[in-house]
Amino acid sequence: MVCTAGPAASGALSVMRETLGMTMEMFIHDETPTDEVDRREKVLSGLADSVRDLVDATIRSTVPDDELAAVRAEVAALAARLRRQQLPGPAGVHYNSEGRSWNWGNAVVGLGNAVAPPVEIVHDAFGSAYAEMTLGAAYEGPPGMVHGGVSALMLDQIMGETASGFKRLTMTGTLTLRYRRPLPLGPVRMDARIAGEEGRKITVEARIGVPGEDTAVEATGLFLIPRWASVDETEQGWSRSAEG
Ligand SMILES: CCCCC/C=C\C/C=C\C/C=C\C/C=C\CCCC(=O)SCCNC(=O)CCNC(=O)[C@H](O)C(C)(C)COP(=O)(O)OP(=O)(O)OC[C@H]1O[C@@H](n2cnc3c(N)ncnc32)[C@H](O)[C@@H]1OP(=O)(O)O
Questions:
Q1: Is residue 53 within a helix (H) or strand (E), and if so which, with residue range?
Q2: What sections of the sequence does the record tag as coiled-coil (predicted)?
Q3: Measuring CA to CA, which residue among 71, 139, 72 is closest to residue 108?
């Protein structure tokens, strides 16, 4: 698989734009065939699931100190094994000409990122999306409750994807949140929809809460298609995963 970041990696690095002092070289046109991407994704996401479990186990473990120290040594050895072959930087967003995109490092939906909650966003129609997931001990803010920044992070992601629809590049311009009631750790659901569009400005409304209960956090966001970004580079746009 070709998945090295930077111009040398894919002579066809078509999306490299330096504007507004910002480099978008991490959108990487990468002609790895979709079946190869799917295969790698499956193995990588399995590892990330296990590491996520390790994070939860670490937070909640009450084993004796010497056992913690012994586990630490084993984990360090595993990290060293993975570091034998590494990307020079973060994973970036890759896409191929078949319409497949993959962003394995993304902080919310990255299938290779054990820090990301296991969120699978469902786009039921253009301009509308939802996600159901379980947030465990790693996402705690107030005791037993989801950290407010984690709610904001997850809402930003679903809202950004909803604005984009994987057909155009959008960035969060302004995000406004109203925390109406504490959100307990456990099963949660997010919903998002495009509420309006005007030129390069897309307004998205969203909420998160316990499934079937009153909204805990509501959000309104203005997402912008940056001046420098082209729209509809492919007819079908990009899908995030084999299923997406
Ligand atoms: C191209 C190929 C792409 C390949 C894609 C492949 C696969 C896609 C895969 C994944 C993508 C899908 C989903 C992504 C999902 C989630 C990602 C999470 C979201 C984020 O985590 S994202 C990080 C945080 N985000 C930033 O890092 C933004 C930093 N910032 C900037 O990059 C610029 O600032 C920008 C671009 C925002 C605007 O720059 P610009 O030059 O385009 O804007 P410009 O000046 O032309 O203004 C035009 C009109 O918008 C108004 N306006 C401007 N800025 C505003 C603001 N902030 N709030 C409210 N209104 C604003 C003006 O007042 C004017 O209004 P008016 O026309 O009425 O005067």
A1: helix 34-60
A2: none
A3: 139
Using left for φ > 0, alpha for ψ between -120 and 50, and beta otherwise, residue 219 falls in beta
Instruction: Look at ligand 1, atom 12, and give the residue with the nearest C-alpha.
Output: 161
ipTM score here?
0.93
Which H or E run contains 79? helix 65-82
This prediction's pTM: 0.88
What domains appear along the chain, each with residue ranges and CATH number?
1-116 (no CATH), 119-244 (3.10.129.10)
Q: What is the pLDDT of residues 29-51, one digit of tens each?
A: 999 999 999 999 999 999 999 99
Beta-bridge partner residues of 186: 135
CA 73 from chain center: how many Å? 30
Ligand 1 atom closest to Cα of 240?
9
Pocket test for ligand 1, best of 108, 123, 171, 239 (most atoms within 8 A of CB): 171
**Spacing, Cα 137 to ligand 1 middle (Å):** 33
- Pairing between strand 201-209 and 122-125? unpaired
Return mean pLDDT, the chain. Answer: 88
Question: What is the 3 state secondary structure string of 80-137?
Answer: HHHCCCCCCCCCCEEECCCCEEECCCCCCCCCCCCCCCCCCCEEEECCEEEEEEEECH
Strands 122-125, 128-135: pairing is antiparallel
Ligand 1 centroid to residue 157 C-alpha, Å: 14
